[in-house]
């Protein structure tokens, strides 16, 4: 296609790409959204008109060049248009996590000094109103969904459609100004500011330029041969860099269609209806889907379950080889084709993956078993390694070189080097401009030559040139005897089991590893119902003897597998307990992107960690929790502590051999 070979010359901003798309693929769908059960659709030409009307409306409201505009809500075309309209008038969009509480939003709104916010509904309006008295620069809020907002004071509160109507009415007055501001945008103009989720300390505002986004979108689209007729489902938080690069960067570069689901509840149905050709999900989504499949198969009849198990065993044996185009015997190939009709096809259809040509996962390491499961079905699932500070892409896996234990080769235009201590550094056109108002952190992260410290420990395989990430550099430590401690490696193996939702492994500087486990209430609850085990709460189920037996069996299987890796065999779990509550972002135990905050968990449950190491067989504890309505309460529990069997490490072969 003409535009794919065209250099980025002249296309120096996202609004410039929109103008090109409106003229080149004017009649093709740019956005779809499901509302009230029906898919609405907008072409690129219609999108350009919607964005222009909103941009004129923003000028009418007094938006200046350089203003920050907060964008808060679930993935909706209107909010993507808001980001592009903000850019068109020379302002900077700052998407926020929609599930953040008011205080978290207050920090970001205050830190960037947002004068305006565009939000989805009453819930978000209320959160901003709650903190707006403490935001001295804040002026106007625009909302999409008017439900429940009729009696609010509308002096500084405006309905999205009215702002667009006023923009259209003032077209002649403002169009010259809009064109002048859009024309001023250059490669180094700020495209977006995204706040990192901050596993440590306060979130930082990552400033990304048009150059960062467009160069990265161009390189990554070409790497995977993305096309204008691809379909994606936009369901990841809009505040996350991944969503920005897929749903704005790559979408505007290649001209593909962005589909927004109706709600998180209907997401799986909407995924099946869209059947995207390009799909990204963090490991947790793939884990949850696999858990649901396993639960359904447990409930299936004997014949169905036998058929499933038989063909899945065959898929694991030859599926990945067939996917990568390697030779397999005719019999194996025929059997796989039969499996496609009987099991794999219907399964992919039920998951919404029938058309996936390119699938990606990133954000956390995915358990190899989970990864291989999807690839064995013939889904081209790959891993990438990225960061907000890199405009996502640091490494990607080329087709035919996909493995569960690496994150691939450097993305086009990216250079990688490994420091003495094993930390990974990279440099690329996608490297962020700065942390907003934080020169010190910028200098700590990015050196004068543009190399960025990832905070992750890894190494490049000599034979393949692939990067392997071991763990967060700050989490990789040593056990008391000097053996390597890499908690996430073990946690990901544990999370492969449908019954285990979360695992936190301790052991740095100690003589052995111990673990906290969170059970998966859906999977374990389903098992309890099938076995007529009554339970009143998560806590009761978490302490049930049979549940503890099952978790112990899982841990012992993982220990046997970890023992085979001589570098990490010291990370076997010696003792464990099942926590009495689910780890929760609202209680500060996970980040908003659901990464474990290891240090905070260790401090908060210090009594439990102590009990794991002092040989106690049980421990009484009281924990403060935050309910959904913001009230605080206490949970009391006595937890059983169990020992798990460890396997002697495979002795390292003598160097003389």
Summarize the structure.
This protein has 657 residues and is an alpha/beta fold.
Describe this structure in words.
The protein has three domains: 2-209 and 237-251, 3-Layer(aba) Sandwich (Rossmann fold); 283-472, ANL, N-terminal domain (Rossmann fold); 477-643, GMP Synthetase, Chain A, domain 3, CATH 3.30.300. Helices cover 39% and strands 22% of the residues. The protein contains 22 helices and 29 strands. The strands form eight sheets. It has a five-stranded parallel sheet, sandwiched between helices. The longest helix has 22 residues, at 302-323. The model is unreliable at 1-7 and 652-657 (pLDDT under 50).
Question: What tags apply to this protein structure?
Answer:
single chain, alpha/beta, Rossmann fold, GMP Synthetase, Chain A, domain 3, 5-stranded parallel β-sheet, 22 helices, disordered C terminus
Write the layout of secondary structure elements.
Layout: H1 2-5, H2 14-24, E1 29-35, E2 38-43, H3 44-60, E3 68-72, H4 77-88, E4 92-96, H5 102-112, E5 116-119, H6 122-132, E6 140-143, E7 157-159, H7 160-169, H8 171-184, E8 190-195, E9 205-209, H9 210-223, E10 231-233, H10 241-254, E11 257-260, H11 267-274, E12 278-280, H12 283-299, H13 302-323, H14 330-351, E13 358-361, H15 368-376, E14 381-387, E15 392-396, E16 409-410, E17 415-418, E18 423-427, E19 434-435, H16 439-445, E20 452-460, E21 467-472, E22 477-478, E23 484-485, H17 487-494, E24 500-506, E25 513-519, H18 521-530, H19 538-542, H20 545-562, E26 573-578, H21 598-604, H22 606-613, E27 618-626, E28 632-640, E29 642-643
Helix pairs in contact: 2-3, 2-10, 3-4, 3-7, 3-8, 5-6, 9-10, 12-18, 13-14, 13-15
């Amino acid at each position: 296609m003409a535009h794919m070979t065209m250099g980025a010359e002249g296309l120096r901003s996202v609004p410039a790409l929109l103008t090109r798309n409106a003229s080149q693929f004017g009649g093709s769908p740019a956005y779809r959204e499901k509302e009230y059960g029906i898919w609405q659709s907008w072409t690129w030409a219609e999108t350009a008109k919607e964005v222009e009307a909103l941009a004129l409306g923003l000028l009418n409201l007094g938006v200046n060049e350089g203003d920050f505009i907060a964008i808060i809500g679930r993935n909706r075309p209107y909010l993507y248009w808001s980001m592009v309209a903000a850019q068109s008038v020379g302002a900077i969009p700052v998407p926020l996590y929609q599930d953040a509480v008011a205080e978290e939003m207050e920090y970001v709104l205050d830190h960037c000094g947002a004068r305006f916010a565009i939000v989805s509904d009453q819930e978000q309006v209320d959160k901003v109103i709650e903190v707006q008295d403490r935001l001295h620069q804040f002026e106007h809020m625009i909302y999409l969904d008017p439900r429940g907002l009729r009696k609010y004071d509308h002096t500084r509160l405006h309905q999205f459609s009215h702002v667009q109507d006023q923009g259209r009415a003032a077209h002649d007055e403002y169009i010259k100004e809009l064109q002048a501001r859009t024309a001023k945008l250059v490669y180094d103009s700020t495209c977006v500011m995204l706040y990192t989720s901050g596993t440590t300390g306060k979130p930082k505002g990552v400033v990304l330029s048009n150059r960062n986004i467009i160069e990265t979108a161009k390189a990554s689209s070409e790497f995977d041969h993305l096309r204008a007729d691809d379909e994606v489902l936009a369901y990841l938080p809009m505040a996350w860099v991944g969503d920005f690069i897929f749903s704005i960067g790559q979408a505007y570069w290649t001209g593909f269609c962005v589909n927004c689901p109706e709600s998180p509840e209907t997401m799986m149905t909407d995924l099946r209806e869209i059947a995207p050709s390009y799909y990204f999900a963090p490991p947790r989504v793939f884990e949850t889907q696999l858990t649901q499949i396993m639960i359904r198969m447990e409930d299936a009849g004997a014949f169905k379950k036998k058929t499933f198990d038989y063909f899945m065993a065959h898929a694991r044996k030859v599926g990945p080889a067939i996917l990568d185009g390697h030779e397999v015997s005719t019999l194996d190939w025929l059997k796989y084709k039969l499996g496609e009709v009987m099991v794999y096809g219907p399964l992919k259809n039920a998951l919404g993956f029938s058309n996936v040509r390119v699938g990606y996962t990133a954000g956390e390491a995915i358990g190899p078993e989970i990864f291989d499961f999807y690839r064995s079905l013939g889904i081209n699932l790959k891993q990438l390694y990225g960061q907000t500070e890199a405009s996502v892409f640091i490494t990607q896996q080329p087709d035919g070189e996909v493995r569960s234990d690496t994150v691939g080769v450097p993305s086009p235009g990216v250079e990688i080097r490994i420091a003495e201590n094993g930390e990974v550094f990279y440099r690329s056109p996608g490297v962020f401009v700065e942390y907003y108002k934080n020169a010190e952190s910028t200098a700590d992260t990015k050196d004068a030559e543009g190399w960025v410290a990832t905070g992750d420990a890894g190494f490049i395989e000599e034979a393949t040139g692939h990067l392997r990430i071991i763990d967060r550099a700050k989490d990789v430590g040593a056990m008391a005897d000097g053996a390597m401690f890499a908690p996430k490696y073990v946690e990901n193996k544990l999370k492969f089991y449908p019954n285990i939702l979360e695992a936190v492994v301790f052991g740095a500087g100690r003589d052995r590893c111990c673990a906290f486990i969170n059970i998966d209430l859906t999977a374990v609850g389903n098992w309890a119902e099938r076995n007529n085990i009554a339970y009143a709460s998560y806590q009761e189920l978490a302490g049930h003897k049979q549940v503890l037996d099952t978790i112990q069996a899982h841990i012992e299987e993982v220990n046997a597998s970890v023992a085979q890796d001589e570098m990490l065999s010291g990370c076997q779990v010696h003792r464990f307990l099942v926590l009495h509550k689910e780890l929760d972002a609202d209680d500060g135990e996970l980040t908003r992107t659901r990464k474990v905050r290891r240090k905070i968990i260790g401090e908060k449950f210090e009594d439990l960690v102590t009990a794991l190491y002092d040989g106690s067989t049980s421990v009484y504890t009281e924990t403060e929790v935050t309910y959904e309505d913001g009230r605080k309460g206490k949970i009391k529990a006595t937890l059983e502590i169990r020992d798990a069997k460890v396997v002697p490490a495979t002795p390292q072969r003598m160097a003389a051999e």
